[in-house]
């Protein structure tokens, strides 16, 4: 029996209700009139699939989902649209469905990972406080300075925004306990030295300050190269203007593209979900204990403090006391004089085919924490490492390409034709331009196999990103651009609309000015 023609079944027009199934609960289920399926099985399947579907109501309270809602939904495909256009929508509403809808009083995100991490309500709390600005600016200065210094380390150590988020929590609560409750007036503005308990919005502002400032500015690479390799020093003013200009370019582009990369509900950034989850956990003052932590006999904050302190103390073992644990290349210990073994299994100048380490900085120092990205992103990186470095670099190096038999297999230094470090001062004129005659007399520049591969892949990645995006996402991007002003907003975008934001012309002006 065709479901669309089943006797006693309400029609689409009668119910005004779309039943969602599948990966996205907002997709209407369509079926050809000529298809025969069991009605009871379909009803049971629809009811099961609808239990996990979030309610999404527009301003008129309708249950209809607009096509614009899933324009950027990665689970939605054009083929599905074409398939659904030929059929008729099946809609039914039961007492169980109505009672479920009544229990859901709040609209929420259509994505389960977002629902699990981000709240669907806003609280009226003070956030633009002297406490938030003081703690935030202090951590910004310390974190940015330390990251710039640690970026010169091998392997580099990066202090992420999560560290600032952790440190800001006791600092904020200490401020609440120690500072007096006094009100001041400065330039006509009234502010309180202790505006009450340290809240999640103040904490979030501090986290935002850290996230936009803890990363090392690319201009520092230019400045360091000028000072170390070319002995150039154009002064502090040049360095400040260079840093501000390059950073402003990034802010201008990010602000201009935020309606495409931030506003849509489908634009999910996994690293931010980690920050939000931790923020909510730190400000959840309930005394409910986790039974998985020592049988529920220890409060969450004490357990977190013990783990943090233990991690801090443990790092001194591979980082200072027993540094061989940082690069545990035991294969090279068995044959320390064998060049091939060291090239294949060495962790510093080799491919490290057995990458064993007890040092977290060796794992997260270059590509970030592997605990945050989804598995498919990690697998994609792993495939690239095996294909280009393990296989590609091995073939290139042992085939003698680029004079590799005279160079280290993996190294970031530059060499001349004698194997010594390349002396750039011998090939430069007084105005720091290239002297071709001196270059020919001195030596070409030689680099290791993996270093050459890294340069090639860096240029190839730019071209491949453009081509891949055009082939696979051009229709999606064009639809999102065309409907960016009319796409239905999710709950979080609605909550953010009450806060005044910088206009587009400000970001465009910032980009054009520099």
TrEMBL record:
The keyword Transport applies. The chain crosses the membrane at residues 130-150, 157-175, 236-254, 260-282, 303-334, 340-361, 382-403, 445-471. Residues 1-111 are annotated as: Disordered. It is found in: Membrane. It is a multi-pass membrane protein. GO terms for molecular function: oligopeptide transmembrane transporter activity. Residues 24-36 have a biased composition (Low complexity). The keyword Nucleotide-binding does not apply. Keywords: Membrane, Peptide transport, Protein transport, Transmembrane, Transmembrane helix, Transport. Residues 49-60 have a biased composition (Acidic residues). It comes from the Eukaryota. One of its GO terms (biological process) is protein transport. NCBIfam families: ISP4_OPT, OPT_sfam. Belongs to the oligopeptide OPT transporter family. This is Sexual differentiation process protein isp4. It comes from Claviceps humidiphila. The lineage of its organism: Eukaryota, Fungi, Dikarya, Ascomycota, Pezizomycotina.
């Amino acid at each position: 029996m065709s479901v669309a023609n089943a006797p006693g079944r309400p029609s689409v027009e009668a119910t005004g209700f779309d039943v969602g199934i599948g990966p996205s609960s907002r997709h209407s289920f369509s079926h050809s009139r000529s298809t025969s399926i069991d009605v009871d099985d379909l009803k049971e399947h629809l009811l099961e699939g609808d239990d996990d579907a979030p309610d999404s109501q527009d301003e008129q309270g309708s249950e209809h989902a607009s096509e614009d809602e899933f324009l950027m939904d990665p689970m939605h495909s054009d083929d599905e649209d074409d398939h659904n256009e030929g059929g008729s929508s099946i809609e039914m509403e039961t007492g169980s469905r109505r009672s479920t809808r009544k229990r859901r009083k709040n609209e929420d995100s259509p994505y389960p990972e977002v629902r699990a991490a981000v709240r669907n309500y806003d609280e009226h709390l003070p956030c633009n406080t002297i406490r938030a600005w003081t703690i935030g600016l202090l951590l910004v200065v310390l974190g940015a300075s330390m990251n710039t210094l640690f970026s010169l380390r091998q392997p580099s150590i990066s202090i992420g925004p999560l560290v600032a988020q952790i440190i800001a929590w006791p600092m904020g609560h200490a401020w609440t306990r120690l500072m007096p409750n006094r009100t001041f007036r400065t330039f006509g503005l009234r502010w309180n030295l202790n505006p009450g308990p340290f809240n999640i919005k103040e904490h979030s502002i501090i986290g935002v300050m850290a996230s936009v400032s803890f990363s090392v500015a690319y201009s520092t690479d230019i400045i360091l190269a000028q000072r170390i390799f070319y002995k150039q020093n154009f002064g502090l003013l040049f360095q400040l203007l260079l840093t501000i200009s390059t950073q402003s370019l990034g802010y201008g582009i990010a602000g201009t593209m935020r309606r495409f990369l931030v506003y849509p509900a489908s634009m999910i950034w996994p690293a931010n979900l980690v920050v939000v989850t931790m923020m909510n956990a730190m400000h959840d003052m309930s005394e409910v204990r986790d039974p998985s932590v020592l049988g529920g006999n220890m409060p969450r904050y004490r357990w977190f403090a013990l783990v943090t302190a233990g991690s801090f103390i443990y790092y001194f073992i591979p980082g200072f006391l027993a540094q061989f644990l940082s690069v545990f290349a035991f294969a090279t210990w068995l044959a320390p004089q064998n060049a091939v073994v060291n090239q294949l299994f060495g962790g510093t100048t080799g491919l490290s085919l057995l990458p064993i380490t007890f040092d977290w900085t060796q794992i997260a120092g270059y590509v970030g924490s592997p605990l945050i990205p989804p598995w498919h992103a990690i697998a994609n990186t792993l495939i690239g490492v095996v294909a280009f470095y393990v296989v590609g670099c091995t073939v290139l190096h042992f085939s003698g390409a680029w004079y590799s038999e005279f160079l280290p297999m993996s190294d970031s230094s530059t060499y001349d034709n004698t194997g010594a470090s390349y002396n750039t001062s011998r090939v430069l004129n007084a105005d720091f331009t290239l002297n071709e005659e001196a270059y020919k007399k001195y030596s070409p520049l030689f680099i290791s196999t993996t270093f050459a591969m890294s340069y090639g892949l860096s240029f190839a990645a730019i071209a491949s990103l453009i081509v891949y995006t055009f082939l696979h996402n051009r229709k999606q991007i064009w639809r999102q651009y065309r409907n960016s002003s009319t796409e239905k907003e999710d709950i979080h975008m609605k909550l953010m609309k009450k806060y005044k934001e910088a206009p587009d012309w400000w970001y465009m002006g910032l980009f054009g000015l520099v």
